[in-house]
UniProtKB/TrEMBL annotation:
<dbReference type="GO" id="GO:0006660">
    <property type="term" value="P:phosphatidylserine catabolic process"/>
</dbReference>
<keyword id="KW-0812">Transmembrane</keyword>
<protein>
    <recommendedName>
        <fullName>AB hydrolase-1 domain-containing protein</fullName>
    </recommendedName>
</protein>
<feature type="domain" description="AB hydrolase-1">
    <location>
        <begin position="136"/>
        <end position="224"/>
    </location>
</feature>
<dbReference type="GO" id="GO:0052651">
    <property type="term" value="P:monoacylglycerol catabolic process"/>
</dbReference>
<keyword id="KW-1133">Transmembrane helix</keyword>
<keyword id="KW-0472">Membrane</keyword>
<dbReference type="GO" id="GO:0047372">
    <property type="term" value="F:monoacylglycerol lipase activity"/>
</dbReference>
<dbReference type="InterPro" id="IPR029058">
    <property type="entry name" value="AB_hydrolase_fold"/>
</dbReference>
<dbReference type="Pfam" id="PF00561">
    <property type="entry name" value="Abhydrolase_1"/>
</dbReference>
<feature type="transmembrane region" description="Helical">
    <location>
        <begin position="21"/>
        <end position="50"/>
    </location>
</feature>
<dbReference type="GO" id="GO:0004622">
    <property type="term" value="F:phosphatidylcholine lysophospholipase activity"/>
</dbReference>
<dbReference type="GO" id="GO:0005789">
    <property type="term" value="C:endoplasmic reticulum membrane"/>
</dbReference>
<dbReference type="InterPro" id="IPR000073">
    <property type="entry name" value="AB_hydrolase_1"/>
</dbReference>
Amino acid sequence: MVSRTLLCQMTLDCLGSKSTFYCSVLICLGTFIFALLCFFFIFVVVPLIFRYSYDMQRGLLFLNFVKVHNADYNKPTSAGLIGARSLNITTKDGVRLGVWHTLPVKHQLEALAATWLTDRAARDQRYDSWMETGVTVVYCHGNAGDRTSDHRIKLYQILNQLNYHVIAFDYRGYADSDNLPIDEQAVVEDTRAILTWVRERVTKGHIFVWGHSLGTAIAAHTLAVLEGEG
């Protein structure tokens, strides 16, 4: 009787050990297959999609789907930019771009105090006259966010403290500019339109182009195009 009981116990222990072993094997096999599928997806499927999907390449390059809206586009003063104006500039291909013109400190109080600020045409004429002999920085921002991003606003303020005008704009597909497909040629055309507008107003002063991150490449490409045109 004791022998039979012992034999049954040994049999159960053996079956339990085998079950545990098989479960361990199945878990290891499942983990391996899952890891293999993840590896295949990350290093095979995603690169293939990226290789043949122009929209994905464009989205990851420009990141214009990342929205960072820290101020009213039509009221740059809401971002602490004293006397700044909001305007729109249209490119040759008819794209409307959102633009801010922030003022040097020497003009900020005058801009706030002047009664002609309520007259849009008179205001624009006055701002343009200030640009004529001043130093103007055209700021080409990088990917993600827009001209209202905090770190960009801080840069405008620093440049204004140095008595520079700042023209900050958004490429098509960003912020309040026309929501159109974006690519390298498009952003170069946008920057070119901004520079043309600035050059028409800064006739006796100086113009500097400031590119940040992706904006550096855009600025360099645009200036190369303009130089090639003479």
